[in-house]
Amino acid sequence: xxxxxxxxxxxxxxxxxxxxxxxxxxxxxxxxxxxxxxxxxxxxxxxxxxxxxxxxxxxxxxxxxxxxxxxxxx
Length: 74
Description:
Layout: E1 3-10, E2 13-22, E3 26-35, E4 42-45, H1 55-73
Antiparallel strand pairs: 1-2, 2-3, 3-4
């Protein structure tokens, strides 16, 4: 299956937002956050299980979830 990713930087974090093609021409999103200062381990963050019409919509959903996570837990 086809996959696309975009990397965003926000404060001391790097957000890797991915969109993966699934059946029917839809996309699902995933998110990995890494802190760019110590401790720098990566974390897989759960994104709402949804099917998106476009890759950009899936990546945007992951990006919004990442910003939310940083605000709440970062």
